[in-house]
Amino acid sequence: MIDLSALRDNPTLSGDRVCLVPLTGEHADDYYRATQDAETRRLTGSHHSVTYEEAHEYCRSRQHQFDRLDLAILELPSERFVGELSLRDVDPDNESAAYRIALSAIEFTGRGLGKEATRLVLEYAFDRLALHRVWLEVYAFNMRAIAAYRSCGFTVEGRLRDALLWEGRRHDALIMAVLEGDFRKAISS
Ligand SMILES: CC(C)(COP(=O)(O)OP(=O)(O)OC[C@H]1O[C@@H](n2cnc3c(N)ncnc32)[C@H](O)[C@@H]1OP(=O)(O)O)[C@@H](O)C(=O)NCCC(=O)NCCS
Known about the structure:
Blueprint: E1 13-14, E2 18-22, H1 28-35, H2 38-44, H3 52-61, E3 69-75, E4 80-91, E5 96-103, H4 113-128, E6 133-139, H5 143-151, E7 155-166, E8 169-179, H6 180-188
Parallel strand pairs: 5-6
Antiparallel strand pairs: 1-2, 2-3, 3-4, 4-5, 6-8, 7-8
Helix pairs in contact: 1-3
Bound molecules: coenzyme A.
């Protein structure tokens, strides 16, 4: 049985290079800037252009959402905001949840920060929340994301054909998931 109190506990999860803290209004300006980044929007298939007010409302409202976990990713030791992630669609009956992550700008990518953040949140998801399965959707062209997820134990389970229409071209999305045992194996290797 999963432990839903883990979603109310406002955890801070610390690693070597990043630390994850609850996303709040304090991160809203950085979060808003990230939503305007053209490459991040392409990689996440974000058609909707987030307004400044929406960004602030989203960040402010996170601390009142007890059915999901929204964390800011801070680079260490500077504690600079470099992105955010969520565990959402938590399904207690099936002990599963969906995952998404976005580093804020291309300059933060490819340096191992996303992998470390994902490992930290999966550790929390499996150890503290006691989930069995975490799944996500990723566009098939996003090779860096797929590699980062694979190294945390995710495997590809399926393909959603032509799921994204971006600037006149259609792209497939992949469903990836990691089960608790896959994660334990991935982190021990
Ligand atoms: C996806 C994301 C979280 C990954 O985090 P990251 O810090 O950039 O990735 P890491 O440096 O931790 O790991 C990258 C992995 O991809 C590999 N990689 C890097 N650039 C690559 C590229 N262009 N093509 C293929 N693989 C690549 C690295 O070698 C590494 O693989 P390894 O673990 O086998 O060594 C981050 O890039 C991101 O947020 N990007 C913008 C938004 C986005 O794409 N979100 C995901 C939507 S599903």
